[in-house]
Amino acid sequence: MKRGTKWTTAMLASALAASVAMTGCSNDKEAASSTSPAASPGATAAASAKPELKEVKLKVYGMTWGELKADNKLVMDEVNKLLKQKINATIEYTIDMSTDTDKKVPLMIASGEDYDGIQMNAAIFQSEVAKGGIREVGDLLKQYMPLRMKGATDYDLKDVTYDGKLYGIPGGAPSFIPQGWIIRGDLREKYNIPEVKDLAGLKTYLSVLKEKEPSVIPFNSSAGDNITLGQALIQKNGFISITGSLFYQFNADKVTAQFDYELPQFKEYLALTKEFTDKGYWSKNAYASKTLSLDGFKSGTSFLGTGHSVSANDTSIILKTTKPDWKVEFVRIDNNYRDRPSRGMAFAIPKSAKNPERLMMALELFQNDPEINSLLEYGIKDVHYTLTADGAVKPTKQGTDSYPPDQFPLIWTSRNAELIKKVDGSIQNLTDFQKKENIEKFSVVNKLAGFIIKKDAIAAEFAAVSEVATTFKPLINFGGFENVDAFLKEYSDKMKAAGAEKVKAEVQKQIDAFMAAKK
Q1: Residue 72's closest CA among 51, 50, 91?
Q2: Residue 25: pLDDT band with limits 50, 70, 90
Q3: How confident is the model at residue 494 (pLDDT cuts 50, 70, 90)?
Q4: Contacts (Cβ under 8 Å, ≥6 apart) of 271
Q5: Is 102's pLDDT higher than 90?
Q6: How does DSSP classify residue 52?
Q7: Residue 26 reports pLDDT greater than 60
Q8: How much is the mean pLDDT over the chain?
Q9: At 385, which helix (H) or strand (E)?
Q10: Does the N-terminal or the C-terminal CB of the chain have fewer CB atoms within 10 Å?
Q11: Exposed e or buried b for every residue in 312-332, given b needs 16+ CB within 10 A?
Q12: What is the value of pTM for the model shown?
């Protein structure tokens, strides 16, 4: 894919200068300098911004799965050099790889820790905005992130809106990134396994490899990895999550809230995870594993990885260098049912933040400055990659080992379809999903984009139901039970005893009001 629109330094300079000129009094007391005349369009970003801005160190919290790559700090040091030149700021990242961020982030916000920006998943965003700990950012986005706002779709903005106001910096990635399975095409061909197109084909693939390659656990899964199995059954049949274990049927005329235990495919999902356990497709303690299936796939300790089209493409690129005889195949399973939620890739600014304006300027550069964007996406030229004759990125061994393409932990905040380069080893056509012109063609917008549950009337019941769902989740996802019917009854009984029916009724009332207001 060739680079699209080129954001010149002059364009960035004028945008940043205009932002500075519009600030007035800010959190870091830049009022005295904010009235300086805007730089001319020909001035560099460094010349226009640096004299007007006092030096700040931005504190940012993010979350990621898997392990940080060895050269992440090396790349961020180079990014910080450019940020220092352009906006007189540097970024100090705290990257959390734990699985309990849903509990840690609310406590962090409530305590007033001085983070300037916090990466949010959809559940945390929904909860914390409703509690009032997140800053409204509509005017700031217009001033400090004009290019991001120009590229944001109505869907992106609605998804980070609450009571008519913007509370999140929408993710920079395209809104549609299909989910699926990443498999070994070379082994599939070696053992004459039919092309994998669906769940039945996947089970055939795993069954044959379990027999032919007994030293390897076919699906070396870990907590959360097998979400695609649920998507293959539940989402493929039109049900998508409102929050946690509460769903609605996307392709029905009326948006109706239902808990997972009520869905027609849920019993089938339980039978599926029990089958995987009984047949040894994953390990007995998979629910406690910290190793992602995709990492196991890359190392050869798993024959199935889960992810999306971007991670599949990244895997293919890496393995072309490390395992050139392997053939990576991607099996798409989500059937177009939803756009990727903007709030699931959003940054939020807590009310305790000291430098929200400068954070936005940095994120604007992350996405739109070609030099910074290229560093984040591909690493350092001639260290982590070289360029082929046709301009494609070719990872070096150090790049493959220590900073493969797309491995920046917060890549979704910086991804820009207009700046994506072709990478040697890519799976043909997968990057097409990232093209803006294909988003509407391939996907359908979530009807509840922007809907946030107000929990005041159901706070105790919502917490109790969430606790039951969290307790049962490992058993549900990894078949940790003897009898499907008995387990389903136990789970549904405990959910109802915790207040599931009251929660559902209140959420439905709010959904009805939300949908009525859209008409």
Answers
A1: 91
A2: very low
A3: very high
A4: 484
A5: no
A6: G
A7: no
A8: 81
A9: strand 385-387
A10: C
A11: bbbbbbbbbbeeeebbbbbbb
A12: 0.67
Closest to 282 in 3D by CA, of 218, 228, 204, 227 = 218
Q: How many CB atoms lie within 10 A of CB 103?
A: 12
| Token couple for 477 | 């996802």
Chain-centroid distance, C-alpha 389: 33
Rounded Cα–Cα distance for residues 251 and 248 (Å): 9
- Nearest CA-CA partner of 237 in 196, 209, 267, 282: 267
Pairing of strands 161-162, 246-249: unpaired
The tokens describing 311, both together, are 């991670």
State the helix-helix crossing angle for 72-87 and 370-378, rounded to 10 degrees: 170
Nearest-5° angle of CA 481, CA 483, CA 484?
Answer: 90
User: Which helix (H) or strand (E) element contains residue 183?
Assistant: strand 179-184
pLDDT at residue 42, rounded to an integer:
32
With contact defined as beta carbons under 8 Å apart, do 330 and 430 qualify?
Answer: yes
Handedness of CA 75, 79, 84, 89 (dihedral sign): negative
- The closest of 15, 10, 59, 50 to 30, measured between CA atoms, is 50
Q: Give the distance from CA 296 to its chain's centroid.
A: 20
Residues 415-430 have pLDDT tens digits of 787 788 888 877 765 6
- Strongest mean pLDDT among 100-109, 176-185, 263-272, 337-346: 263-272
Residue 77 sits at φ, ψ, to 5 deg, of -60, -40
Q: What is the model's pLDDT at position 273?
A: 92
d(CA 247, CA 253): 15
pLDDT for residue 335 is more than 50: yes
Place of tokens 């550069």: 365
Q: Tell me how far apart the alpha carbons of residues 337 and 180 are, in angstroms, rounded to a whole number.
A: 13
Q: What are the counts of helices (DSSP H) followed by strands (DSSP E) for the chain? A: 22, 14
d(CA 357, CA 362): 9
Q: Compare 49 and 382 and report the one with higher pLDDT.
A: 382
**Cα distance between residue 434 and residue 167, in whole Å:** 25
Which tens digit of pLDDT belongs to each residue from 276-304?
A: 999 999 887 777 777 788 888 999 999 99
Please report where in the chains the tokens 């982590």 appear, as a residue.
384
Contact (CB, 8 A) for 424 and 317: yes
**Per the structure block, which two tokens stand in for 191?**
């053992």
Residue 177: name the closest of 344, 371, 422 by CA.
Answer: 344
